[in-house]
Design goal:
about 140 residues; alpha/beta; CBS-domain; four-stranded mixed β-sheet; three-stranded mixed β-sheet; 6 helices; 7 strands; about 40% helix; globular
């Protein structure tokens, strides 16, 4: 059985909730990724900041990325997946919450990120289509 820890990209780095969106954008660029977990001063996951969040919620609204804090973009409780959850559970969680990336948690520790493409490679073809449809509808 394929589980999240088998599919994820390990070693996810956080942007601190008090870090600027500008710093987050630099980190996204340096790492070549589209999302960063947002962690609070207590090292707990507060949310996920995506390149789309930066574009739509900051730049598109005329906000200053130097002055806007990453934590301002965290919305509610972070959606995560357990390290030992299987591909079907990852699929269900992504579809239910309409997200394309999930932080992978082992206990209370962030250990990686799993993306839609990672899951797509592990699922049978019909399920991939179902996931893409679920994420693409409003």
């Amino acid at each position: 059985m394929t589980v999240a820890r088998d599919l994820m990209t390990p070693g996810a780095e956080c942007i601190g909730a008090q870090g600027s969106v500008s710093d987050a954008a630099r980190k996204l660029t340096e790492m070549g990724v589209g999302a960063l977990p947002i962690c609070g001063s207590d090292d707990k996951l507060k949310g996920v900041l995506t390149d789309r969040d930066i574009t739509v919620k900051v730049l598109g609204k005329g906000r200053d990325p130097q002055q806007t804090r990453a934590g301002e973009l965290a919305q509610g409780e972070a959606v995560t997946i357990g390290a030992d959850d299987d591909a079907d559970e990852i699929f269900a969680t992504m579809a239910r919450h309409k997200v394309r990336r999930l932080p992978v948690i082992d206990g209370h520790r962030l250990i990686g990120m799993v993306a839609l493409a990672d899951v797509a490679r592990a699922l049978p073809d019909p399920q991939v289509g179902d996931l893409l449809e679920a994420l693409s509808t409003d």
